[in-house]
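Teaching soon. Invent one.


***
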Amino acid sequence: MNGKRIVAATIVASYCGLASAAVTLLGVGSLPPTGTDLSGLTGTLENGNARNLLGAFGSGIAYTGQGNRFVAVPDRGPNAVSSNTAVDDTTSYQARIQEIDLNISGATVTPVLVKTTLLTNESGAPLNGLSSGFDATNSSASTRFDPEAIRVSRDGQSVFISDEYGPFVYQFDRNTGKRLRVFNVPAKFKISAPNARGSTEISGNTAGRVANRGMEGLAITPDGTTLIGLMQNPLIQDGGRSGLNVRMLVIDIASGNTRELVYQLDAINLGVNEIVAINSNEFMVIERDGSAGTSAAVKKIYRINIAAATDVSAIATLPNTGLPAGTVAATKTLFIDLLSSSYGLAGASFPEKIEGIAFGPTLPDGRLTFVVTNDNDFLPANPNNFYVFAMNSSDVIGFQSQNFQYPPVPTIPTMSQWALMLLGLLMLGAVIVVVRRGQTNRFA
């Protein structure tokens, strides 16, 4: 499959609906878990996996606004599963963007991989998942990178990606993969003692992100001016895995200024994995448990509203439950329960890690598409799935599609246009010759 498009196997699901909203499961498509991408990388990782292994890109997905094209990011890479305790079983899998055409025909969903772009820092050094690449001051000088979410800039030329390790929020050139910008994330989100071992990070820090529970979600408002980063769980000082109050970081893209809001989990055994904009105040959020198959109990997508949410930037520590007096969290209502019997998705094969959501193109019948993806952890038994839903505008009142402003594409002249231009040049040349002859005769 080197240098060629990879066409996925497809799984067709029957139409079905959810009682609480007229949202239809259109179909499910997949890409093979043992496929290779278009990175051109050769050789193997520390665990024997190919460096161009295609997988886990369901960690984050975003619509580009062009046809059926989506961009997606795999996370830090397959685990080494070794006795090397120095690197926390991570590998030097280079971070990358996968570009995928998600072709929808009726109830048939066919993903096609069309491009892979490798990610580097400003100096061109590869960013990869090896946990030993941390910077002792937890700065962006680190080369370790665990991408978890991706959104496309207004002009379509760059992408924003959240990094679970930092947590950090980066901007990359979409075509070259080079990092363009590092956004400031307040110190309270960061750990003071990063380490190659997650267990050591937990024991060595009293504040900041919980190990492997960093900035899992990232949204961009439809006008392209604001990013919203969403932590997977409360910060250590906010209760960590025993807390309910998850911080959301609102970033003004132009200035880099930030404010913080609160999303409240339903239970301490849950986490949030992604956020996507409906409009500037409303978003969809994945909230789920850590179980797969028949053990899975919570795989929900909530509609939230932050219009009345309080800025908690000045509050250093949030309680495990409840909120400080005068503080208001984002409101939330259930939108899609992926385990509802009406969808027919629940069962032994349902994945644990539902991690990506994106609104997609409008169908010929006028309905809006909504795509849900899973992180397959690079495991050969776990497919990379695309669950495609369809909904009417009345099902998601207030929805605004992202206002992309792509630069105009230069047009290539046709053969007839080239011929006309050549004729024009010849005629201009003839006129110049006549004029010059006249001037010569005048002074003879």
In short: DSSP finds two helices and 23 strands in the chain.
